[in-house]
Amino acid sequence: MADKLKRRGDMKVVRISMLSDAVVCHILSFLPTEEAVNTSTLSKRWKCLFASLTNLHFDYSSFSKTLNKCSSSSSSSSDIISFINFVDRVLFLRNSLSIQRFYFTQHCVEFVQAIDLFRVSAWVSAALLRNVQEIDLIICLRESSFQDTCGVET
Question: Which intervals hold domain F-box (predicted)?
Fold first, then answer.
């Protein structure tokens, strides 16, 4: 690694491509899982690194906002199905045997109406089978008096 370091002035430059997969995965674990998965397009080496993440952070509202950033529409059933499939793929196609943290949140009533809660139970079971250390589940089962994160005034 020392022979690959370049000097700029008095500073040594370390490129992220020089870091080990374990270090890159540790860094990616601080991102929401959706963003960490998106990094798989950066290089061939990173293509499957997301499957080794130990911290999984699934947030339907940020996933939905990413899908709809060019439109003003609120969540649709296809967005919800895309999110469910995303969580399935990340959880069930993992390389890593252990999960440090499993975080799942959704504040959108349309989500609960569209998903079978047995699916959420399967996600939790998959995390437990991988010796999860910490689980955070936030699931809105009914409308609240506040504006929810789907952009629907209640």
Answer: 16-55
If we measure between CA atoms, which residue out of 63, 26, 27, 21 comes closest to residue 44? 21
What are 58's strand-pairing partners?
104
Those residues whose C-beta lies under 8 Å from the C-beta of residue 116, and which sit 6 or more positions away, are none
Q: Indicate the average pLDDT of the chain.
A: 76
Residue ranges per structural domain of the chain? 54-69+76-139
Is residue 71 pLDDT above 80, yes or no? no
Q: How many CA atoms, within 13 angstroms, populate the side-chain half-sphere of residue 154?
A: 13
